[in-house]
UniProtKB/TrEMBL annotation:
Pfam families, alphabetized: His_Phos_2 (PF00328)
UniProt similarity note: Belongs to the histidine acid phosphatase family.
PROSITE patterns to which the protein is assigned, alphabetical: EF_HAND_1, EF_HAND_2, HIS_ACID_PHOSPHAT_1
Keywords: Calcium, Membrane, Transmembrane, Transmembrane helix
Residues annotated as domain EF-hand: 466-501
InterPro entries, per database record: Acid_Pase_AS, EF-hand-dom_pair, EF_Hand_1_Ca_BS, EF_hand_dom, His_Pase_clade-2, His_PPase_superfam, Histidine_acid_phosphatase
Top-level taxon: Eukaryota
Protein name: EF-hand domain-containing protein
SUPFAM superfamilies linked to this entry: EF-hand, Phosphoglycerate mutase-like
Transmembrane portions of the chain: 134-153
CDD domains in alphabetical order: EFh, HP_HAP_like
C-alpha cells in the first residue's frame, strides 16, 4: 500500500439514514478487508488501537552514518516527527477500514446522519507523531468530517454541544511520565530495572550472544554506524539490546525508500543480515513487557496497560448497555503501548511495524455480546489484511500465546470485563464529577483529598514528598516574591512549563475545587500537588460523559 490516491470520492446519505461511502472505481485500493454480511449485522462498536506511521529518527544513528544531519538543531526540532510517508500510511489504513466499516452493508453507522463526536472519538498521546497519525487516519476513514482538538482534562468541563462540532481528537495532558492511558508503565519506578533484567533473561538473546553469525553482524553494524554501544569491547548482550535501535533506524529508511545505514566505507547489509537484525529488534520488543519465562504472572502487561484495557472495555460496556452512541473509537499511540496491551491480553506479537494495530469489534445478537480481535503487524503491506484472523484472546492462559498460535474465534464481553475491568475507577470519576458540580457551592477540598487517597489504585499519583523532589525547586523559582504561594496566572504558567497546560477557565474551576478563590488566593505547594493529582489521577471518563460547572 504505497499511498495511491484517486479522484471521485463522494458521500451519500441513504433515505433510511445510514451513512454510506461511495467510491469511484478508479480510486479503489489494492488492500481490502471485507466485512461479512453476518458480522456486519451484529457489529455494534469498533475500538482501534494503532501505532503511529513512519517518522524521523530520534537521534543520529552514529558517527559513521552520513544519511542524517549531525547538527543538534535538527534533532531538537524534528526528532521523532511523523513524515509525509507516515501520514500517507495512516491515511491508507483509514481508507481500508472505511471500506470495511462504512460501506452500504455495514450496520455500524446505521442511522447516523452526520459523523461527529457523538459517534466517533479519537485519543492520542501528546506527541507530534501520534497526533498527526490520528488526524491522517481520519482523512482516510472519514475524509469530509470536521476535526477538532482538545486536551482530555478540558473535556471534563465541556458539554455535549462541543462534541457536535466535529470529530474530537483528545490529547493526553502529559507528554510522557504521567500519561496513564498510553504510558502507564512509566508511573512505576520499578519498571526500568525489571525491563533490563528481563531482557537479559531472554533465552533467544542468550543464544544469539553465543552465535558467531550475530557477532559478525554486530561487528558490521559497528563499522556502519560507529555507534559506541555496538563496540566489540562491550558485552555481547549489551550490543544485542542496543542493536534494536538500528533495527528501528533501518525500518525508517526502508519505509522512505532510502539506502540503509549509509556510510563512507560503502558497507551495506544483505538480505539475510537484515533479517537477523529484525529478529533482534522483534525479540527486544517482545521482552519490553512479556516475561522471558513466558508466564503471564511474571509479565508487565497489567501494570503497563491495565488502565488502557479498562477503558477499551468501558467503551464497549457503555455501548452494550445503550449508554453510549459511540460507534468507532480510535487510539493513536506507540509500539510500546501495543506491546504492553497485547501482553496484558495474553498475546505475544510477532513484530510491530509502522501503523500496526489491534482492532476490537463488539458484536451482539440482542442477548449476547462478544468481541472479535484482530492484529495486523504490517498494515502497510498490501497482502497483510488477507492473512488476518479473529483471535480468541487467551485471557485465562498461564503462558503468553504467540499470535500465530492463538485460536480463531472470539471472547464474550463478560470474560473481557473480568480480565480488564478495574473496580472503582468509574465510581471515582462519578464522585469527581459531583465534586466539580458542587465546588462553587460548598467546600470540596477535603472530599477531593479523600477521593484521591482512598479511590481506586489507578487514581493515585505521586506522593507529596516525591512531588517536592521533582517540582519543589521550580515552584520556588516561579514564586518571585518568596511568599510560598503562586497566583492563578503563575500556576497556569507553571503547569504549562511542566506539560500540563490548561485553560484559565479550567484552572479557575480547579481553584474552587480546592476551596480557593482564583482572584484573590494563591496556591502553596500542597495546593498545587493536590490540583495536579486531580489532573493526572482522575482523568476524564472515556465514555462520553461531561459536565457543566457553574462559575
Amino acid at each position: 500500500m504505497k499511498g495511491r490516491r484517486g479522484p471521485g470520492r463522494r458521500w451519500d446519505v441513504a433515505s433510511v439514514g445510514v451513512l454510506l461511502v461511495s467510491i469511484d472505481p478508479c480510486s479503489s485500493r489494492a488492500s481490502t478487508w471485507p466485512l461479512s454480511a453476518e458480522d456486519a449485522s451484529s457489529l455494534r462498536q469498533v475500538v482501534l488501537v494503532h501505532r503511529h506511521g513512519a517518522r524521523f529518527p530520534t537521534k543520529p544513528t552514529g558517527k559513521a552514518d552520513i544519511a542524517w544531519p549531525i547538527r543538534t538543531q535538527f534533532w531538537e526540532s524534528y526528532k521523532g516527527h511523523l513524515t509525509p510517508v507516515g501520514s500517507s500510511q495512516l491515511q491508507d489504513i483509514g481508507s481500508v477500514l472505511r471500506n470495511r466499516y462504512l460501506d452500504d452493508k455495514a450496520y455500524l453507522f446505521g442511522g447516523v446522519q452526520k459523523i461527529d463526536g457523538t459517534s466517533l472519538a479519537v485519543y492520542t498521546s501528546n506527541i507530534q507523531r501520534t497526533l498527526q497519525s490520528a488526524w491522517a487516519f481520519l482523512l482516510g476513514f472519514v475524509p469530509f468530517a470536521a476535526v477538532f482538538f482538545a486536551f482530555r482534562s478540558e473535556r471534563v468541563f465541556s458539554d455535549s454541544a462541543r462534541r457536535a462540532a466535529g470529530v474530537p481528537i483528545y490529547i493526553e495532558d502529559a507528554v510522557g511520565s504521567d500519561d496513564r492511558l498510553f504510558h502507564e508503565w512509566r508511573l512505576d519506578d520499578k519498571y526500568e530495572e525489571w525491563r533490563m533484567q528481563n531482557l537479559r533473561r531472554s533465552r533467544f538473546l542468550q543464544d544469539m550472544s553465543c552465535d558467531r553469525e550475530y557477532h559478525k553482524l554486530l561487528d558490521k553494524l559497528f563499522k556502519c554506524s560507529k555507534d559506541e554501544r555496538l563496540c566489540p569491547s562491550q558485552s555481547m548482550m549489551d550490543r544485542l539490546i542496543a542493536a534494536k535501535d538500528l533495527d528501528t533506524q533501518v525500518a525508517i529508511e526502508e519505509a522512505h525508500n532510502r539506502p540503509v545505514l549509509v556510510n563512507e566505507e560503502g558497507i551495506s547489509l544483505n538480505t539475510h543480515e537484515r533479517q537477523l537484525l529484525q529478529e533482534i529488534g522483534n525479540e527486544v520488543k517482545r521482552r519490553w513487557y512479556g516475561a522471558a519465562s513466558g508466564l503471564r504472572c511474571d509479565s508487565y502487561g497489567k501494570k503497563g496497560a491495565g488502565y488502557l484495557a479498562h477503558k477499551i472495555w468501558r467503551h464497549m460496556q457503555q455501548r452494550a448497555e445503550g449508554k453510549s452512541h459511540l460507534r468507532f473509537v480510535q487510539m493513536s499511540c506507540h509500539d510500546t503501548t501495543l506491546a504492553a496491551l497485547a501482553t496484558h491480553l495474553g498475546l505475544e506479537l510477532p513484530m510491530i511495524g509502522f501503523g500496526a494495530f489491534l482492532v476490537f469489534e463488539l458484536h451482539s445478537d440482542g442477548d449476547t455480546h462478544w468481541i472479535k480481535t484482530y492484529y495486523n503487524a504490517t498494515p502497510t503491506e498490501e497482502t497483510s489484511y488477507s492473512r488476518l484472523k479473529s483471535l480468541a484472546l487467551p485471557l485465562g492462559e498461564e503462558r503468553l500465546v504467540k499470535v500465530r498460535n492463538c485460536a480463531t474465534g472470539s471472547v464474550t464481553l463478560g470474560d473481557f470485563a473480568s480480565h480488564c475491568e478495574i473496580p472503582g475507577v468509574e465510581e471515582a470519576f462519578q464522585s469527581f464529577l459531583s465534586l466539580c458540580c458542587d465546588s462553587g457551592k460548598r467546600p470540596t477540598r477535603k472530599a477531593l483529598t479523600n477521593l484521591l487517597q482512598n479511590g481506586a489504585g489507578s487514581l493515585k499519583w505521586m506522593s507529596f514528598g516525591t512531588w517536592q523532589e521533582r517540582y519543589g525547586e521550580a515552584f520556588r523559582c516561579i514564586d518571585k516574591n518568596n511568599d510560598g504561594k503562586l497566583s492563578c496566572s503563575e500556576v497556569q504558567s507553571a503547569l504549562s512549563e511542566w506539560g500540563y497546560s490548561v485553560s484559565r477557565e479550567t484552572l479557575e474551576r480547579l481553584f474552587r475545587l480546592v476551596d480557593s478563590d482564583p482572584e484573590h488566593d494563591g496556591f502553596d505547594e500542597e495546593d498545587l500537588h493536590l490540583t495536579m493529582s486531580a489532573l493526572v489521577g482522575i482523568r476524564g471518563g472515556l465514555h462520553g460523559q461531561s459536565i457543566k460547572v457553574e462559575a
